[in-house]
Amino acid sequence: MSLRSMTIQPNLDDLLNKGDIIDKCVSGDDYKIDPNGDGIKIDFSNSSPSFSFSFQESRFFLTIDLLKKGIPGDVLDFVRPKIRITQKVNHRRDCSARLLFAAQLNSERFLWDPEGKVQKEKTREWEQWVDAEWEEMSIEFSGYPSGIRHLNILNQGSDRLFWKGFYGPKITDFKIEIIMPSC
């Protein structure tokens, strides 16, 4: 068997509707799919549509079965390739926002484990009236224990002025990389 690195770059339809995403959960005032980056003066010609979070604290949670994505259990147990989750983030200039981006590796658990031993998180906050370019946020796992089969991903955010509507943080160009060690 040839061990090659791979990239999983689902489009929005994959994230929301495909069977290899075991679970998706949205809470709060929901989110919207924004085809043109509402309120952000950025060229979107090379980007996919974005998720826009609302004024209430909202969550977007995914569980991905790594085996169903084509990564053999033996590779996860013995080779333990790096797993990198990356997304681009931004906000509307006229509204401050906050985003928590977290990921967790689990064996057979399909839900977020609050006591998860293999998890990482990052927070990004934007002030009102600050121009921002799309920036990349990433989380990378390596050296994780044997038995990992699922990747849980959580994005939680809101605008900080509590404006009714979808003025919170925005996420686009979501991807997962499985990076095999070089020989």
Automatic annotation (TrEMBL):
One of its GO terms (cellular component) is SCF ubiquitin ligase complex. Residues 1-180 form the FBA domain. One of its GO terms (biological process) is SCF-dependent proteasomal ubiquitin-dependent protein catabolic process. It comes from the Eukaryota. One of its GO terms (molecular function) is ubiquitin protein ligase activity. InterPro entries: F-box-assoc_dom, F-box_only, Galactose-bd-like_sf. This is FBA domain-containing protein. It comes from Caenorhabditis tropicalis.
